[in-house]
Design a protein that fits this description.
heterodimer, A: alpha/beta, 5-stranded parallel sheet, disordered C terminus, B: alpha/beta, Rossmann fold, 7-stranded parallel sheet, 6-stranded parallel sheet, 44% helix, 13% strand
Chain lengths: 477, 455
Amino acid sequence: MRTICFYFQVHQPFRIKKNYRFFNIGNDHYYFDEFENRKIMRKVAEKCYLPTNNLMLELINKYQGKFKISYSLSGTFIDQMELYAPDVLDSFKALAATGCVEFLSETYSHSLASLKSKEEFFAQIDAHDEKIFKYFGQKPTAFRNTELIYSDHIGEMVAEKGFKVMLTEGAKHILGWKSPNFVYFNARNPKLKVLLKNFKLSDDIAFRFSNKNWAEWPLTVEKYKGWLDAIPHNEEIVNLFMDYETFGEHQWADTGVFEFMRALPEYVLRDPNYRFATPTETAEMYSPIAPVHVTHPISWADEERDLTAWLGNELQDEAFDKLYELKSVIDRIKDPKLQLDWKYLQTSDHFYYMCTKFFNDGDVHMYFNPYSSPYEAFINYMNVLSDFIIQIQRAEKTAHELSADELHDLLEQHKEEMKALQAKLAALQQNKEKVEAGNMAKPKVAAKKAAPVAKVEAKTAAKPAAKAKTGAKKKTE
Amino acid sequence: MPIKTLMFGWEFPPHITGGLGTACKGLTRGLAQCGTEVIFVIPKAFGDEDTDTQSIVGANNVRIRTKSFFNEFSQLSNEEEHTEEFNIWKELTYIEVGSVMVPYLTPEEFHEYIRSKENISKSFSFKSVKDFWLAKEQQLSAEGTLSFSGKYGTNLMEEVSNYAIAAAVIAQQHKFDVIHAHDWLTYPAGVAAKKISGKPLVIHVHATEFDRSGENVNTQVFDIEKMGMQMADRIIAVSNLTRNIIIERYGINAEKVTTVYNAVEPDQMAQREYSKSVDDKIVTFLGRITFQKGPEYFIKAAAKVLKRMPNVRFVMAGSGDMMNDMIMHAAALKISDKFHFTGFLKGDDVARMFGQSDVYVMPSVSEPFGISPLEAMRSSVPVIISKQSGVSEILQHAIKVDFWDDDAIADAIYGLLNYNGLSATFKHYGKIEVENLKWENAALQVNEVYKLAMN
């Protein structure tokens, strides 16, 4: 029995304003291009998210539990659904309700934190999984790192965080003669199972589907099922991992990609040797056959399947290092607005725009890149980051000062203390006057005049005085 | 008797791409103040140029098809007719043969472009002077005029030669005592006007091909420059630095060359206050980001200063063929959070940049004059300039360093940022000094050169 495991990456970055100039530094603290982000989110929602979600829901309902899929929705994508596309959020909720959809864990902002800071990596996983639970009621058990980035070390951290299975690229230079169609395990911690993308069969759909120069064009479901059947008999699983935007955005509707997807489950399920499963189910069903050794991080990007799309040139490394230098200060100042900006600035797309390799994968890069050159992308990002650093420094200066709530509490406390002291003073004055009145017979008139005022003060002060005591107690505690 | 001069420029405010147009305007204004009349010719008149102090003639409005002119030359049939006039048109034929067809480019992009040999197309080839004139006749509009873009681009060489044709017609139509041509683009025009009118020619060298291209000079441009210098009766250089290049590199007789320094027009906008948006000190480089401007020395100095003090930002304002390399350079030195690039600044942004600057640095490798430090000083910004700039010959209240000495540049920046007494002195006296550099004074010297040329 062979298992097909579908996983779709769904992500949108918060793109920063394209013309954030030097003159904006220190003045303009809103970095994100709301118009552009909304526009793109809406466009992709109409072309891809909504129709594809409908299709998936239709298929799940039709095959009554036999068709299963999985998604990783980045936190920034979920935030954008909240802001611009509640209809898409609803359709994902409907998919979650079928019980045939697994939501994977990842970093909140689709970041590269796993390469830099374990603490930040874990914090972002927690923030992301909280969101997933909030909307879909699932606590993720499978992990998919940003752009399938994986190494022995990253896998080890993911295992430590309690995940049972992790997804990554079945990169040729890692596997050699080995097949991606088995469950593997992490080389440092055998408890973590690793699912490897079958990039040939995945990319046939994701990249080549509509390419008329491709010898196999047009790709039919019969042909595709034939390729699945041609896989050696003992190979157990086929991991089809792809961008969700394959449907309707990278491959337009008129290429027939929706019809292909609609027909695929039927052809597969007609054959009793096949079934669909989610990553967690797949990992539970099969025993791992061997460790997978990945000393240097891999990803699913470009020919090299490495990190060079995001890191490695001077521009990317400088921006990346300068960003993560801020980690400890950000944690210290605990300002929610700055912490959100910090998350959004970590999104890997910003570094992707600064990539300088423009040969084999140049066109793919240009497709996603709003900037005309990596230099322009870098300058814009660094201007924003410079302002962000100034903001942090200002916030740090006032960090020992208190938040508005705390300040309010303290002021209240202070007020009550003042009242209590006033009451005390009034009481003492009264006493003094009494004593004075007793001692001296003559200046009675003055004492009488002062007395009523003091009495009134003492009366009004009596009640708060009691409160003040409890307030004072709290403070000493 | 007031002198009347026919002046050829390439651009005039407000339509300018570089400093040349601004300098021309300042000079004509100064000349007007000493009673000299100026007819200012540009390839393309937009109609909104300031004509208070001079009349503007656009070569694009000049009718070339006149009996007395066009026919005369189009009759020239073969190379045996070696009249004086004939030679200049032969010159132009030669210029155009090597001309290049390029899209709109900035001056430095154009130089970059024509330096690479494969771009030089032989799209024009005239067998004879007659062919040349027949081709020209094809280009004439219904009104009998030639069209000009007035930019550095779409077959610049062709525009240069067309400009000379128009210049010859203009020289026939106006009365004047002397011809004055600014930089190589207008030398053929000046020479043509001289041939037609017999009046003396003064050429004004704001920059040479060596300043623009280092040692990789474009020989076409060099030849035009040399031809202009040889044909000129007198030459004005913007600094002794440039004067020496003219004498040594172009082999011109030293007695023919006079140095007249540029000036700067008083600040029109009084002193506008631009509030700073960051607390840090700001050190600025403003100019084209090309090898000749020494941008890398500014970056090296910036890295050194940042090691000593954190509360400072560096700004490289401008664009150019080395910009991307400089961005990489700053990133490799890990100072990109404190080192900013603005791209080319337009209009108000220049004043805004000066208004926010605490120090201005011009580390030029080779700078015939360099007017922007004067603009900085006018805005009360202390300046650090390279000894290899023409402007360093006249400024007292500026820190002068060798362009390659980034230690000295870093030192000077640090001093100006940290010792208030020092910066206050430079701000105060620098402003006074620059306000005393007046175009009237430059114009008086230019007038003397005219007199020498006329005698």
